[in-house]
Structure formats: C-alpha cells, structure tokens
Amino acid sequence: MTKSLFPILAAALLLSPSAHADSLPMPYDAPPSYKAECGSCHMAFQPGLLLAGDWRLVMAQLDKHYGDNAALDEKTRREIEDFLVRNAGTRSRYAGAGDPPRLTGTDRFRRKHDKLSAAVWRDQRVGTAANCVACHPGAEQGRYSERDLTVPGYAGHRGEHGHERRRHGHDDD
C-alpha cells in the first residue's frame, strides 16, 4: 500500500502551488508591445504579481505613471491591459498594493522583504524596491527563489560566486 501512495503523493507535491511559489514565468501570450513599452523603462513585471483591479488602475493612469508620462495610443494600451488583467494574480497575497498600486506594496512583497534594512534600498546597486533584478538575477525569467538571491550590501550569507545572500526563513507560498 505504501508503494501505491508514493506516485500520488509525489504528483500532489509537484503540482501544488507552494512547490512552484518562486517560479512565476511570463505568460506565453505576452504581446510584443508589453516588453517593448513597459520593459523599455523597467523590468516587464509578470502580470501575476498584481491583482486585475490593480493592473486596471495602473493602465488607467499611464499619463502619471509613478512620476513619468507613459501614455500609449489606445490600441496598445488596451492590448497590454487585456494581457495584464487576463494573467493577473488571484490570491490575497497580492492584495494591499495601494493607490497607485505598487508591486512593493503588496502583502506578499512586504512579508518577504520585511527584514531588509533601509540601507539595502538606498544602496545604489538597488536604487528602488521595484528593481527586482538587483537582488533576484532571474526575475525577468520569473525566478524569485531565495536560493538564487543576492542582496547588495547585506551582511548575510555569501552565495557560491561571492555575492551576498540572505535567507530569512519564510516559507514560500
């Protein structure tokens, strides 16, 4: 009986959301305009990092996009918004993004980054909390694993290439 349960338990573990919590790849249907327009100023964030309503707010305020005018023609704006909303996050961990919505304002972001000091955010290699790739080198590919984490200026664990790493013990969800 034990041998017959093993394949079922293994499949359940592999298919569970927590098993892939640090993997958030860009959806296959990303329009070229998304990377071209949004990715020209910052990382083209995975749509699953915000809720649909938050993406609608972001796209409705492009003329005041966090201090910049990122206005688009209506066809492009609609194409990108439809993609973001269709692939948005659905779990409450992405709630609390604020107004205007910020990835760094979500409950999950705050919980996962709560032990970082203000000095990390001020480090010129980081610049802003929204600069995911400063600490998560695989962020553009949707990899946010703590195993790959490098935090500039953090007096923590050193990674395999001499980069400073940090483990804060949160379970990934």
Structure, explained:
It is a single chain. α3 (52-60) runs antiparallel to α4 (74-86). The relative contact order is 0.13. This protein has 173 residues and is mostly helical. It has a two-stranded antiparallel ribbon. The chain has helices at 2-15, 32-38, 52-60, 74-86, 107-112, 118-122; strands at 157-158, 164-165. It folds into two domains: 27-112, no CATH class; 114-173, no CATH class. It is built from six helices and two strands.
Short description:
Helices cover 31% and strands 2% of the residues.
Label this structure with key terms:
173 residues; mainly alpha; two-stranded antiparallel ribbon; single chain; 6 helices; 31% helix; 2 strands; 2% strand; disordered C terminus
Residue runs with pLDDT of under 50 for 5 or more positions: 5-20, 157-173
Described by the principal axes of the CA atoms, the overall outline is globular
Largest sheet: 2 strands, antiparallel
Q: So what's the oligomer here? A: single chain
**Helix-strand category:** mainly alpha
The gyration radius over C-alpha positions equals 18 Å
- Can you tell me the number of structural domains? 2
Strand order of the largest sheet: 1-2
